[in-house]
Design goal:
It is built from 8 helices and 12 strands. It is of the alpha/beta class. It starts with a strand and ends with a helix.
């Protein structure tokens, strides 16, 4: 059976793996430093490994347009030193195998659809709520793309300044979803990390409201069967239930409530999704 390579490219670490699926995936973790050093270590991990293709799920934004001169590049990222990095080109040149690229959250959605909480569905959303907020979607079995890729963390939401005078912390949009509901926003608003705040703290009333608004919007636009909420912020006990209750109230019976769940693959959603990207590429080219 053909083995594939997988890279979950994150702002603090790259998780690299080789295998065919969850049962035989072997991984290593590489700290994210400067592009040259990080990608050299990625290539060193795969050297000598027999893989049919490599899939990469990366932080972004990334250029996913095959006709673009910068296809495969990380583009306007705020990550120091990584703007305009030719991610796909560097891996191809080093290893000489086909390389598939998508966003880290689209990859996580694919991993959960293939082996996890969205298995057996054709429409699902994966949203990660951590230091930042990002989201990926599968619509009728295909990963969602357009002029770019989904940027769910930057959707605009109702912001009641009396209830929440915090102006938001997104450097581009101030009070978009990420600017109001990310882990960084929680820390900036309250002066402490979210895991230090009890569930009855006002922080979680705001957090559940903002995330419920986002999920309700996405449910109305994309009609997902499953919405998967991952990331460090979602580890707060009781938060998922509060979000689900608020989404139900917001939708008010107009459309069916999607199943709102945590990732079944845990921290491996992204790297397994990257593995699935590589397998898909081989199928398309075969």
């Amino acid at each position: 059976m053909t083995r594939f390579g997988a890279v979950e490219a994150g702002g603090t670490k790259f998780v690299c793996g080789v295998g065919t699926g969850p049962d035989d995936l072997v991984t290593t973790t590489i700290p994210t430093t400067i592009p040259e050093e990080t990608l050299e270590r990625v290539a060193a991990f795969f050297n000598g490994q027999s893989v049919g293709a490599i899939g990469i799920g990366s932080f972004g934004p990334v250029d996913l347009n095959p006709s673009s001169a910068k296809y495969g590049y990380i583009t306007s990222t705020p990550k120091d030193g990584w703007r305009d990095t030719d991610l796909v080109g560097a891996v191809k040149r080093a290893l000489g195998v086909p390389v598939a690229l998508d966003t880290d959250v689209n990859a996580a959605a694919l991993g959960e659809a293939r082996w996890g909480a969205a298995k057996g569905t054709r429409n699902c959303i994966y949203m990660t709520v951590g230091t930042g907020v990002g989201g990926g979607a599968i619509v009728e079995g295909s990963l969602a793309h357009g002029t770019a890729h989904p940027e769910m963390g930057h959707m605009r939401l109702p912001h009641d300044f009396e209830a929440d005078p915090f102006p938001g912390c997104c450097p581009f949009h101030r009070d978009c979803l990420e600017g109001l509901a990310s882990g960084f926003a929680i820390q900036q608003r309250w002066g402490v990390a979210g895991d230090a705040l009890p569930l009855d703290h006002a922080a979680w009333r705001l957090e559940s409201r903002y995330l419920a608004l986002a999920v309700a919007n996405l449910a109305c636009v994309l009609s997902p069967e499953v919405v998967i909420l991952g990331g460090g912020v979602m580890m707060k006990d009781g938060l998922l239930g509060r979000i689900t209750s608020e989404v139900s109230e917001l939708l008010n019976g107009y459309i069916a409530l999607p199943s709102i769940v945590m990732p079944a693959l845990g921290a491996r959603s992204g790297v397994l999704g990257a593995l699935a990207l590589a397998a898909r590429l081989t199928c398309l080219n075969g």
